[in-house]
């Protein structure tokens, strides 16, 4: 028996050491994008990526609490996290195929042969009891088929993990954008409420002046129309505010009212999100994005599957055996001389399969071609997204400065026109026109400010501004719930 063990061990060792892989050597495709950002992008530096974790990037305490709640309760994130565990388990199953599987088995075989079928002419009854360790059919990975499948499973696991990180970044950005939209609606609604109150007072003043014969019916109708327009605008903003709250609750996985000890929030102007983001060469920045990493892992998996498909051309060597004790009676299982063993090596060489193996290799190769194209497309889309956001960041900053200056000028003009109207120099129509322009300028400033903050938020996601360590810790926390 000892000689058998040594012989089997030598066979396995020789096969493993002599094994070769038919998997093509992996080479990362070149990034099919320009080596510099478009001229419309203004870079502050060219030395990497100045981004931090979301807790440091989004400084509003209330927004931080909302993002933390979303990372803990969002159902889609839970699904994405569970898929990581599923892929990890699948990789573990595939990895187990590289090692022999041993089972402890105890069996009884009993049979009765009728006399007319017995070679002795008498009824035969036999029993056999076996206890031993079974080696299930273990494939010697001489051609690298099992190792290729293992590499593909590992890459698929990493791709799932990167996809979860991409979703996590998207969730952070979506929560921030929903919160910013809610702040915009609230600030615009407060401005509309102030405008409604001011126009109501103006309408009442003109009504008294009309009763005194100082103002005409035309002035009162103009004031009434201006007041009702402000009321309608306020109602529209309230509806948009409710929609923003509903979206934020959906992303959170719970109502904002259910979050205990909610810290105070900040206005749009006080968010403190820095616009001084910079990026180096496109390839340096984009290759760290989780969606690009996921696409590359899918490419690695497709490359590994080619090796598994090629190995089907060659013989598959499998070992099956057992070692233990056997006896006719249960009590004699462990008596001296009851040792038993079996050893069944097998070699299967495909002879004719009507082109099935060749077709499987062609499928694996074409899937790699598809994976390469998808990887390159992902990088190209990432380049466009980042370039658009970098450009939008700069243009919106210029627009915000101009819009705020316009709002200041319109408010100053409104004060001058109101003073001239009280002095009887201009008509009430000029006052209404100045009010509309000032109101529109203030609303526009709030909208552009929110758009600029949203561009900075999307840029954080597009540049994969969160470290993997931080993402891993939160993923483990969510997975452990």
CATH top level is: Mainly Alpha
Put simply, the count of helices is 11
CATH fold assignment: Outer membrane efflux proteins (OEP)
What's the N-to-C terminus distance? 51 Å
Rounded Rg? 37 Å
Any overview of this molecule?
This protein has 481 residues and is an alpha+beta fold. The protein has a single domain (23-98, 144-200, 231-314, 358-479), classed as Outer membrane efflux proteins (OEP) (Up-down Bundle), CATH 1.20.1600.10. It has 11 helices and 4 strands. It has helices at residues 2-18, 54-57, 61-73, 75-96, 145-211, 217-252, 282-286, 290-311, 356-422, 428-462, 468-479; strands at 102-113, 124-140, 316-327, 339-348. The chain has a 4-stranded antiparallel sheet with strand order 1-2-3-4. The longest helix is centred in the middle third of the chain and has 67 residues, at 145-211. The chain starts with a helix and ends with a helix. 34% of the residues are buried.
Characteristic key phrases:
about 10% strand, 11 helices, about 60% helix, single chain, alpha+beta, Outer membrane efflux proteins (OEP), disordered C terminus
Characterize this entry briefly.
The protein is of the alpha+beta class and 481 residues long. It is built from 11 helices and 4 strands; from the N terminus they run ααααββααααββααα. α5 (145-211) runs antiparallel to α6, α5 (145-211) packs antiparallel against α10 and α8 runs antiparallel to α9 (356-422).
């Amino acid at each position: 028996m000892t000689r058998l063990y040594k012989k089997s061990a030598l066979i396995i060792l020789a096969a493993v050491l002599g094994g070769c892989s038919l998997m093509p050597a992996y080479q990362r495709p070149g990034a099919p994008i320009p080596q510099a950002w478009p001229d419309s992008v203004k870079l502050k530096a060219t030395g990497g990526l100045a981004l931090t974790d979301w807790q440091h990037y989004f400084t509003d305490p209330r927004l931080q609490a909302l993002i933390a709640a979303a990372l803990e309760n969002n159902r889609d994130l839970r699904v994405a996290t569970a898929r990581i565990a599923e892929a990890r388990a699948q990789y573990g199953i595939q990895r187990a195929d590289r090692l022999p599987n041993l089972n402890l088995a105890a069996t009884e075989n009993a049979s009765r042969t009728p006399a007319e079928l017995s070679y002795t002419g008498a009824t035969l009854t036999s029993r056999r009891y076996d206890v031993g360790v079974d080696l299930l059919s273990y494939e010697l990975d001489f051609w690298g088929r099992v190792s290729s499948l293992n590499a593909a499973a590992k890459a698929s696991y990493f791709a799932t993990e990167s996809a979860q990180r991409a979703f996590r970044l998207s969730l952070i950005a979506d929560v921030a954008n929903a919160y910013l939209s809610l702040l915009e609606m609230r600030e615009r609604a407060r401005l509309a409420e102030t405008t409604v109150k001011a126009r109501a007072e103006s309408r009442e003043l003109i009504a008294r002046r009309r009763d005194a014969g100082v103002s005409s019916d035309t002035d009162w109708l103009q004031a009434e129309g201006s007041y009702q327009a402000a009321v309608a605008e306020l109602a529209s903003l309230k509806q948009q505010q409710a929609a923003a709250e509903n979206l934020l609750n959906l992303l959170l996985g719970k109502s904002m009212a259910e979050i205990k000890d909610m810290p105070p929030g900040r206005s749009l102007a006080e968010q403190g999100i820095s616009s001084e983001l910079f990026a180096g060469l496109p390839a340096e920045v984009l290759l760290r994005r989780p969606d690009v990493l996921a696409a590359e892992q899918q490419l690695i998996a497709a490359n590994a599957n080619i090796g598994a498909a090629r190995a089907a051309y060659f013989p598959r060597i499998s070992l099956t055996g057992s070692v233990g004790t056997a006896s006719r009676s249960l009590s004699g299982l462990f008596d001296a001389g009851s040792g038993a063993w079996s050893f069944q090596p097998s070699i299967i060489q495909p002879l004719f399969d009507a082109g099935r193996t060749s077709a499987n290799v062609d499928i694996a190769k074409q899937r790699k071609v598809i994976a390469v194209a998808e990887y390159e497309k992902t990088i190209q889309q990432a380049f466009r997204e980042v370039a658009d956001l970098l450009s939008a960041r700069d243009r919106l900053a210029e627009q915000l400065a101009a819009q705020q200056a316009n709002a200041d000028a319109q408010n100053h003009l409104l004060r001058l026109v109101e003073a001239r109207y009280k002095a009887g120099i201009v008509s009430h129509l000029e006052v209404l026109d100045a009010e509309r322009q000032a109101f529109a300028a203030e609303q526009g400033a709030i909208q552009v400010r929110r758009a600029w903050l949203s561009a900075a938020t999307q840029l954080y996601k597009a540049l994969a501004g969160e470290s993997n360590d931080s993402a891993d810790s939160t993923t483990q926390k969510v997975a452990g719930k």
